[in-house]
């Protein structure tokens, strides 16, 4: 994994910008998920940071995990690593002491849903689309986070059929804050982040903690429960069969 797969910086306003850049489709290896988790956690602990903006370079926001890494592993080390790495990254976004704004363009699939579903504010490009293609990859997971983005029955249909939802649809559901042309995405996300950064930081940090405290369900426990089924289908050998017949595509799973 290249040393620059996750880039981060903090500007004078206290906006921490975290950029994922893992060609060709931002499908992260195990180490990448851990690197992302560590970066977001570190920035949240920084008293000078008032908000985190998470975005990506390239063709799309995130295509989940690196399926090739799973295919290359003859045992269960990779799937355990994926489970734990994704859990760490999703939890880091949710538990970050300051709000996390995600800027989504292109595809947001698998693990990308976990990141976006656990974030606080979502700004999307007009070309953004969201989905869980896990069933076609021999995996499960992130239904917890998809259910924070779309209504319950839509989430079930999307999981079972691997259908996607557009940015416009999520905006209509109320889960996406704003939808803008792709060339305006970063600027608009920075505008939203700057609005948050301009508030009293102690109040904003308290608001983030309060919102997490009144959530309707424990997203970490819920996702961990889902992961048990992912591991179960891997142990049975079914997951490998599905991955091997999928055609070796480079997009990911969550």
Give an overview in words:
- It is globular, with a radius of gyration of 17 Å.
- It has 254 residues and is an alpha/beta fold.
- It is built from twelve helices and nine strands.
- The strands form two sheets. Strands 1-2-3-4-6-9 form a six-stranded mixed sheet, sandwiched between helices.
- Strand 1 (6-10) and strand 2 form a beta hairpin.
- Pfam families: ECH_1.
- GO terms for molecular function: lyase activity.
- Belongs to the enoyl-CoA hydratase/isomerase family.
- Keywords: Lipid metabolism, Lyase.
- This is Enoyl-CoA hydratase.
What order do the strands of the largest sheet run in, or round the barrel if closed? 1-2-3-4-6-9
Mean pLDDT: 93
Count every helix, treating DSSP H or I runs of 4 or more residues as helices: 12
Radius of gyration: 17 Å
* Beta strand %: 15-25%
Which of globular, elongated, flat, extended, rod-shaped describes the shape?
globular
| Largest sheet report | 6 strands, mixed
Strand runs, count: 9
- Structural category is alpha/beta
> How many angstroms separate the termini?
19 Å
Subunit organisation of the chains? single chain
Helical fraction: 40-55%
Question: How do the helices and strands follow one another from N- to C-terminus?
Answer: EEHEHHEEHEEHHHEHEHHHH
Unreliable segments of 5+ consecutive residues:
247-254
């Amino acid at each position: 994994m290249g040393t620059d797969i996750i880039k981060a910086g903090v500007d004078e306003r206290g906006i921490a910008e975290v950029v994922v850049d893992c060609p060709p489709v931002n499908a992260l290896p195990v180490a990448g998920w851990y690197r992302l988790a560590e970066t977001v956690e570190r920035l949240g602990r920084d008293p000078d940071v008032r908000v985190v903006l998470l975005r990506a370079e390239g063709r799309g926001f995130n295509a989940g995990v690196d399926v090739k890494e799973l295919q290359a592993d003859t045992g269960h080390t990779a799937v355990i690593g994926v489970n734990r790495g994704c859990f760490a990254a999703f939890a880091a976004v949710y538990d970050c002491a300051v709000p996390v704004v995600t800027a989504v363009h292109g595809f947001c699939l698998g693990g990308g849903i976990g990141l976006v579903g656990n974030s606080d504010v979502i700004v999307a490009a007009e070309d953004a689309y969201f989905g869980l293609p896990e069933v076609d990859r021999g995996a499960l997971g992130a239904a917890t986070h998809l259910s924070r983005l779309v209504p319950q029955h839509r989430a079930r249909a999307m999981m079972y059929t691997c259908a996607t939802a557009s940015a416009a649809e999520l905006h209509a559901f109320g889960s996406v804050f704003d939808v803008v042309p792709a060339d305006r995405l970063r600027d608009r996300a920075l505008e939203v982040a700057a609005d948050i950064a301009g508030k009293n930081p102690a109040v904003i940090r308290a608001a983030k903690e309060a919102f997490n405290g009144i959530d309707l369900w424990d997203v970490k426990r819920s996702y961990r429960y889902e992961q048990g089924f992912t591991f179960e289908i891997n142990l049975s050998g079914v997951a490998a069969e599905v991955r091997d017949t999928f055609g070796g595509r480079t997009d990911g799973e969550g």
